[in-house]
């Protein structure tokens, strides 16, 4: 696991955008696993900026989103489909037929899960999966529990998650109670996982996810097992790991965490020669 810590969130976002754009420039048919919520907004903003300054076509790429609220159609302003249009898709030339998001308004959510899972299986391993983390350790909407599902499924959102998402809705009763989420399978099968978190509020769950035991009660902890995990954090989100200093590595709970700073991040991006 490589953890890059940045002085501020925007630097983390810029590096995240550069890592994504490399997939687009270097692969023939890049398959992108995309996320919503506050965490990736900055990455999308930086990505749009990079493309504006140095045009790059997305026509050969395909996108698969992690999740969608049950009951919200793509026209609903709080749907994740609308979020993706606003923050990314309307700014780039990704083909509409290459955009895949679970349909929250499907007549049968169960049938929609099967459709989405079939699509993911046909796609095979995603080239890169972008992830944020919930305050309870969820990734996608794979909520903590005794079991995690590897396939696309309907999830009843925990009260914590509903409260965390309240900021997007006008009133409590509008916050959806269920979502369709990609399971853990395609996330762990992705060739690379790009994880982003900002802010002090995430520091304790980051510490738990990356130094604690691998357990279904913190779904993000499974990422410790991923062979190509890049974690981008600002200093606040990393505070529980770095202890406020700039260590090159630390051993916590018998786990060695390697930290990357500016020169090594450039190396990771392949931009220093
Ligand atoms: C969104 C998603 C969620 C969010 C998580 C963090 O597609 O799958 O796991 O990444 O809830 O949300 P924010 O970024 O709003 O703190």
Write structural notes for this entry.
- The strands form 2 sheets. The protein has a 9-stranded mixed sheet with strand order 5-3-2-6-9-10-1-12-11, sandwiched between helices. Strands 4-8-7 form a 3-stranded antiparallel sheet, with helices on one face.
- The mean pLDDT is 94.
- It has helices spanning 9-26, 41-53, 80-87, 109-123, 159-165, 184-189, 203-211, 235-242, 262-269, and strands at 2-6, 31-34, 62-65, 67-69, 99-100, 128-131, 153-156, 178-181, 192-197, 229-234, 249-252, 255-260.
- The two termini are 23 Å apart.
- It has 9 helices and 12 strands.
- The protein is globular and about 50 Å long.
- With 273 residues, the chain is of the alpha/beta class.
- The structure holds fructose -6-phosphate.
- The site of fructose -6-phosphate (F6R) has 14 residues, from loops.
Short description:
By secondary structure, the chain is α/β, with parallel strands linked by helices.
Strand order of the largest sheet: 5-3-2-6-9-10-1-12-11
C-alpha end-to-end distance: 23 Å
Radius of gyration: 18 Å
Helix content: 25-40%
* Broad shape: globular
Query: Helix-strand pattern, N to C?
Result: EHEHEEHEHEEHEHEHEHEEH
Task: Indicate the low-confidence ranges by residue numbers.
Answer: none
Number of helices: 9
Structural class: alpha/beta
| Main sheet makeup | 9 strands, mixed
Strand content: 15-25%
Q: What is the count of β-strands?
A: 12
Mean pLDDT: 94
């Amino acid at each position: 696991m490589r953890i890059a810590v940045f002085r501020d969130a925007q630097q983390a976002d810029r590096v995240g955008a550069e890592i994504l754009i490399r997939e687009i420039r270097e692969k023939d048919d890049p398959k992108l696993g995309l996320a919503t919520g506050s965490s990736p907004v900055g990455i999308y903003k930086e990505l749009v900026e990079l493309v504006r300054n140095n045009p790059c076509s997305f026509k050969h790429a395909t996108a698969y989103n992690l999740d969608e609220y049950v009951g919200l159609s793509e026209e609903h302003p709080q749907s994740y489909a609308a979020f993706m249009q606003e923050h990314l898709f309307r700014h780039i030339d990704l083909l509409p037929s290459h955009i895949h998001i679970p349909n929250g308004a499907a007549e049968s959510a169960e049938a929609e899960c099967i459709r989405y899972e079939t699509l993911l299986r046909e796609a095979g391993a995603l080239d890169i999966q972008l992830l944020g983390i919930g305050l309870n350790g969820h990734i996608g909407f794979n909520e903590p529990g005794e079991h995690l599902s590897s396939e696309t499924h309907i999830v009843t959102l925990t009260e914590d998650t509903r409260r965390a998402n309240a900021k997007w809705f006008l009133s409590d009763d509008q916050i959806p109670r269920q979502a369709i989420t990609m399971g853990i399978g395609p996330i762990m099968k992705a060739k690379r996982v790009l994880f982003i978190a900002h802010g002090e509020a995430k520091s304790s769950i980051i510490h738990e996810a990356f130094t604690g035991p691998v357990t279904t009660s913190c779904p993000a902890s499974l990422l410790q097992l991923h062979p190509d995990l890049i974690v981008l954090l600002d200093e606040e989100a990393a505070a529980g790991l770095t202890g406020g200093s700039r260590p090159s590595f630390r051993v916590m709970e018998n786990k060695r965490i390697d930290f990357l700073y500016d020169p090594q991040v450039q190396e990771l991006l392949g931009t220093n020669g």
